[in-house]
Design goal:
about 210 residues, alpha/beta, 5-stranded parallel beta sheet, 9 helices, 5 strands
Length: about 210
């Protein structure tokens, strides 16, 4: 992303994942987190153009996204991949070791190809966490993100805090699973903050800022 910004060209973001990425639960296409992410980034990083490409697939587990990752990247040629992952793995009880192996392998391939990535962990819901496997998956995603040194959007914890204050209905639809408009908006805002924070840290590490941040 720093390279794209330094050259003043449009930044392409590939959003891959399951129903949250597809936009299930949102009242319109413009209310999805993918659409809101593009406008939020452009509103934050004035003068920059972002193109967020949606390649979500409802019901998909991590391995499914991993299997099509290379093809999607070849077609879109992104500067950044936003990978929303883990919810369906938790619901379907995919093994923790299998999930970690999938994540490590895919993140390793992305690193080798010098493609930035942000992971987004599962959403929180009171009914979802009644199954102890669900939080094990959340922890597994965080563990791999830390090992691979990639940015993680911890929407699980952010949504748990919201749930304590406002309840599930504040950000989930009536099915207690999919995000409503507020959930999509919160996810986009949290993602944008994480991405901008990552750029600022990269600038600090390089000691050669490429953008004047607000």
């Amino acid at each position: 992303m720093r390279k794209a910004i330094s050259k003043g060209r449009s930044v392409k973001v590939l959003a891959i994942g399951s129903s949250s990425t597809v936009g299930v639960g949102a009242s319109s296409t413009s209310a999805t987190y993918v659409a809101r992410l593009e406008s939020t980034l452009e509103g934050t990083l004035k003068g920059m153009d972002f193109d967020v490409v949606n390649r979500g697939l409802s019901g998909e587990v991590a391995q499914g996204a991993a299997d099509r990752m290379k093809k999607e990247i070849e077609e879109t040629k992104p500067d950044l991949v936003v990978w929303q992952v883990g919810t369906n793995d938790a619901i379907r009880h995919v093994g923790i070791d299998s999930l970690k192996t999938c994540l490590r392998s895919t993140l390793g391939w992305l690193a080798q190809n010098r493609i930035d990535v942000v992971l987004v962990d599962p959403q929180y819901g009171e009914s979802l966490t009644r199954d102890e496997h669900y939080e094990k998956v959340v922890k597994a995603v965080a563990d791999v993100a830390r090992e691979a040194r990639v940015l993680l959007v911890d929407r699980f914890e952010a949504m748990r805090e919201l749930q304590r204050e406002r309840g599930d209905r504040f950000y989930l639809t009536s099915d207690n699973l999919h995000l409503n408009d507020t959930g999509h908006r919160c996810m986009a805002e949290q993602l944008a903050r994480t991405i901008v924070g990552g750029l600022m840290q990269a600038d600090a590490d390089a000691e050669q800022p490429v953008f004047n941040y607000p």
